[in-house]
Amino acid sequence: MSSQPILRFAPSPNGHLHLGHAYSALFTWRAAAEIGGVALLRIEDTDVTRCKPEFAQAIMEDLAWLGLSWPEPVLHQSSRFPIYAQKAAELAARDLLYPCFCSRSEIAAAATARDPDGAPLYPGTCRHLSEAEIAERLKRGDPVQYRLKSDRAIALAGPLYFRVAQPDVTAPVETRVAHPELWGDVVLQRKGTPTSYHLSVVIDDDAQGVTHVTRGRDMEAATDFHVLLQALLGLASPIYTFHELILDADGKKLSKSRESESLRALRAAGWSADDVRRHLGFA
């Protein structure tokens, strides 16, 4: 494997890119240039109901409009479902996964704590189901997801650490202690989809030889859990850098789900790629 630093920008094609995505992409490509590395484009399209080929094509068009380029071929996660399923099966064979049939409303009603993202922390309800009840519910075709037995996983992995370079990839690397216990029993698989974001991202970062991960500060806490998965699966752990977020007039993070104005809309309104770069501090 090449000793050249490898970074990646990995959007999901479930909508059009906005200024927050543009900032992350420009940050990543600049970081790669600063350390003599290469920036990869990865399409994280594991959500087969929301991700569309036309959005994937639009992502590439928008990034090219910004003046960015990347090596081909581009990895599409939807082509790697068998690999994710195999890794999940390895965890299951070690008694590290269990089926969960709880709905979001049931979890919200039963939870007594919250995870680092502010979502209800799963209280482990289905860990206490009997084998007979599990078999019956699977036979019935109840919606199911598979969660990591986090306490057992953490005990097997032992103390966990990860490397961080802040505020950018050229800064000295510091070592931080990971606290995956804050996340509880995270979902790694869902019925009809053999992976989750957490599982596929660590598998593909390792497979692509990614040495540096640049991600928004909203993903900083998730790194604790990713380090746990890397340890369990024997995967490499990159150096992490967490960049600032682009906020709207209300002080909230730009988001596709909140219909933040897209790069395409800005372009139609007369913005140039240089305008976007200047606006985001990459002139």
UniProtKB/TrEMBL annotation:
Pfam families per the UniProt record, alphabetical: tRNA-synt_1c
Membrane-spanning segments: none
Signal sequence region: none
Gene Ontology MF terms in the entry: ATP binding; glutamate-tRNA ligase activity
Enzyme nomenclature, EC number: 6.1.1.-
Top-level enzyme category: ligase
GO CC annotation: cytosol
Domain Glutamyl/glutaminyl-tRNA synthetase class Ib catalytic: 8-262
Keywords linked to the UniProt accession: Aminoacyl-tRNA synthetase, ATP-binding, Ligase, Metal-binding, Nucleotide-binding, Protein biosynthesis, Zinc
Entry's Gene Ontology BP terms: glutamyl-tRNA aminoacylation
PANTHER family: GLUTAMATE--TRNA LIGASE, GLUTAMYL-Q TRNA(ASP) SYNTHETASE
Membership in a protein family: Belongs to the class-I aminoacyl-tRNA synthetase family.
Official protein name in the record: tRNA glutamyl-Q(34) synthetase GluQRS
Source organism per UniProt: Paradevosia shaoguanensis
Phylogenetic lineage: Bacteria, Pseudomonadati, Pseudomonadota, Alphaproteobacteria, Hyphomicrobiales
Gene: gluQRS
